[in-house]
Amino acid sequence: xxxxxxxxxxxxxxxxxxxxxxxxxxxxxxxxxxxxxxxxxxxxxxxxxxxxxxxxxxxxxxxxxxxxxxxxxxxxxxxxxxxxxxxxxxxxxxxxxxxxxxxxxxxxxxxxxxxxxxxxxxxxxxxxxxxxxxxxxxxxxxxxxxxxxxxxxxxxxxxxxxxxxxxxxxxxxxxxxxxxxxxxxxxxxxxxxx
Length: 194
Hints:
With 194 residues, this protein is α+β, with helices and mostly antiparallel strands. 21% of the residues lie in helices and 30% in strands. The radius of gyration is 16 Å and the shape is globular.
């Protein structure tokens, strides 16, 4: 399949056929490379602070969710945000997602908005995570969106209400409740300790 062009809009059906091994997301049908400054086909690995935060957060969530209906998944994991299947123009690969509605899961990933999305900032994706994807997640109905900055050890939580996201910030010494998972709390000291 020909690789994506900048002046064309795509859907998940197109995205699924690209085979150049580059990680991409689609926002409004526009492809965004996850690591746009990389000239190799394979993307560089995230920093070890990013990996540590992802690993520890996954561990804490997976431990809490053991035996429960909700599941946590790590990137790369395709999320078709609008639930339009192969016709979806919005396909993202968050660092972590929590999905409680098992009917949204299929062989290709998640078809619809997850209950919770976590993005861990990297230099190449930070602007998109804080702006474009913030708005997309809010519009799609993601109930809880976390943005983690592993370099300055700050977590911003965004809880969806009828009037949009309500934001709160936490530091590395805090314990943070997960609003979509009653009784779940995340120890940020462990998430940010290297």
